[in-house]
Amino acid sequence: MDRSDLLPVGRRVAYWRGRRKLSQQVLADRLGKSKSWVDKVERGVRSLDKVSTLQHIAAVLRIDTAVLLGRDVQPAGVTKRVEGVERIRAALSTYEIALERPAARRPVLPADGLAREVAHAWTTFQHARYPQVVDLVPQLLADAQRIHAQNPGVGRVPLVEAYRVTASLLVKLGAPDVAWLAVDRAMIAATGDRASVAAGAVQLGQVLRESGRARVAKSVVLAAAYRIAPPVIEYGTPAELSLCGTLLVQAALAAACVGDDRTAVELIDEAAEMAARVGEGHDHYRTGFGPTAVELARITAAVELGDAGEARARHEKAITRDGWRWLPAEHRAAHLIDAARAYLYADDPINAGRILMEADRIAPAEIRHRPAGRDILAQVAKEPTAPTTLTHLAATLRVG
Fold this sequence. Notes:
Blueprint: H1 9-19, H2 24-31, H3 35-43, H4 51-61, H5 65-69, H6 78-92, H7 111-126, H8 130-150, H9 152-172, H10 176-190, H11 194-210, H12 214-228, H13 238-257, H14 261-278, H15 291-304, H16 308-318, H17 322-326, H18 329-345, H19 349-362, H20 364-368, H21 371-381, H22 388-397
């Protein structure tokens, strides 16, 4: 047995960094992170709860992710998730239209029928019913591709939306490599339509961040944000402001990932001005953009920057806002996972556990099917003071 198998994840990072003769600064540069971020990871101050981050570190260290996690670690529930991702990968790999393969037996849907399919997929995703979305996506992509081939003018927007929801789902399932394929298709299909390009860029930013390319993400989404931004904010439509503001939020989160706190704050402040004009309770282009959504992004940025105290204080206020209950279940539960990270960083596993149980109540799939949710559950459940209900959930899901 390699002695690194007995170490916590952060210590394994330090061990393999030493084996590869890399300084903390060199590793940080290759990861697009700060030296202090690497130091906190190695000392266990900052936990690694994103599968994409673990994969990126493993790639830089030239080891398998399983080695970084420990050779005996076999996360339960992975099989179904992997199978779902592979089904979507297969659906993205058919190229039926380009290869002029014989049409399937199913007739081409009318445009309004496809619009209903796309809306149903998005609604199912926003309710965090990820296994159901996995079932919907292959046929949705096939239908959208056929209609676009028949009538590009009518089919462009639904095709972009089909790719967008697919990319969002794959990010949730911890498959940024396949999500990249979907979002790349979305951006190509959107070319020439200013709003569709901006909408696709929202998922592009998410995919790039999850792939460990935060600096690129910031640059790309900022360009998309300022392309859709109205010349004068007062004259912008709610839809334009929602897209622009959401892209500014994505850029801010990318800045936070690389430790650029000043840029993150400035961009979120800019987005907040737009959110104040949009108001609460809207969902233009499936962004859920509004004042509360921006406040939740501010909390996520604080967590990424290591400011657990600010994150916790803002979280307690944010969940009392009227806008909180108007956000989709997926959005609220995802935020709660970020908040749980903040409490865990602050050595408060009791409240971290309480928040995770609330996330499981709102959207069970965020804990049961999303790798980031399962990982934070495993971390909290190991704490001696973790709530009993949470340790039972971890045992049921066989995580940890």
